Amino acid sequence: MMRRPCLVLGAALALLLGPSAARLPAAASEVREKIALIAQGINKVIQSEMQTEVGIGEFSGPVSPLTNAGPGIQKALTEELEKIKVRINEKAFVSIKGEYLVIEEETKKTDELTIRLIVTLRKKSGKKIDEITADIGYRGNEDLVKLLAMNVDLSKHTKADREGQNQKLKKDLETPPLYLPPTGGTQIKVSETSPYAVEVLTRYPGEGLKAQPAENNKGQAFVEIKKGEEYVLRLHNTSKHEAAVSVTIDGVDAFEFYEPAVGRPTTFLVAPGKTRDVSGWLRDNTKLNAFLVGSFADSAAAKRLKGSARIGTITVCFHPCWEGTKPPPEYDGSRSSSPNATGLGREIGQKTKVVRRTIGPLVTSISIRYNKK
């Protein structure tokens, strides 16, 4: 079984990791590895043009499904370029724009889900200099889910290998699993019997929260969030195991602006039979920025993000997790949807000790769309 040990922060907002806590580095995702390679390629191209800086434009997604992971790709590429000393300047002589597409080629298996990242470099005059591409396949299954804002039900495929899980992802992309309750209900699930659900609650600053119903648009859940409203994600876990849950907004992780970056959390812990609210972008151990339609956390890095898409996307991924390395019987022999990695799960409660958790396979992903403009 491919297990991901996870440090779970059992702390109040005013507390974080204790001085004796281990800080385990997270393994790079496939999309991050490919973006790093693209950054190296960009550096070679601009050096051939006798340049040391580049302007970064938007990254657009496929026509179908409606998705908006461009800001997340843009942020990752910016960071990888800065690592290799490439300056980011909107007025640079060379600029780049990108896109990410679901591809099917005769040379590829028809049952494989693959995304191609395409980066085009141009001079100020508009003349094309070069094009760099990279493919993301079954090694990055969870990346695919987040890039395409997919609904996924892998509950019966936890013991399949990554290739088998990838094939199930492709089926779920074609026919998204989605269950919405009868009139008046607000919990969004992938099936009526799934133990995991998400609710979207909205409010204008200073007002009370109101749970919003979702509409089914060809297997995609749409929720109305008005401009100027804040929203809160209520995560439900009615399973008998704890759940480690990641939250991604327009391709940007909910912990992306957390400082310090060393030891940055990656998942929220939801106790069995419980709910918890995720209210915004966590900035450090004392504060957060509320989720606001069309807005990222107020930071220098966030201000660089560009996105003109009218659709906003929220993707919530649920993994069972447990203490120790021995899995529960139903997950014995299961496999992670991605290579082994380590993360930190933040539990906001009364406890202050750090406990170890093993994160199991991706079981459910629930994506929600809303109009940003």
Question: Which properties best describe this structure?
Answer:
globular, 373 residues, alpha+beta, 5 helices, six-stranded antiparallel beta sheet, six-stranded mixed beta barrel, disordered N terminus
Provide a descriptive summary of the structure in words.
The structure is a single chain. With 373 residues, this protein is an alpha+beta fold. The protein has one domain. The chain is built from 5 helices and 22 strands. The protein has helices spanning 30-48, 70-83, 141-147, 162-174, 300-303, and strands at 4-11, 53-60, 87-88, 94-102, 115-123, 128-136, 152-153, 196-203, 210-212, 214-217, 220-223, 230-237, 242-249, 252-253, 267-270, 274-278, 280-282, 288-292, 311-322, 343-348, 354-359, 364-371. The strands form 3 sheets. Strands 1-20-15-13-19-21 form a 6-stranded mixed β-barrel. Helix 2 links the parallel strand 2 (53-60) and strand 3 (87-88).
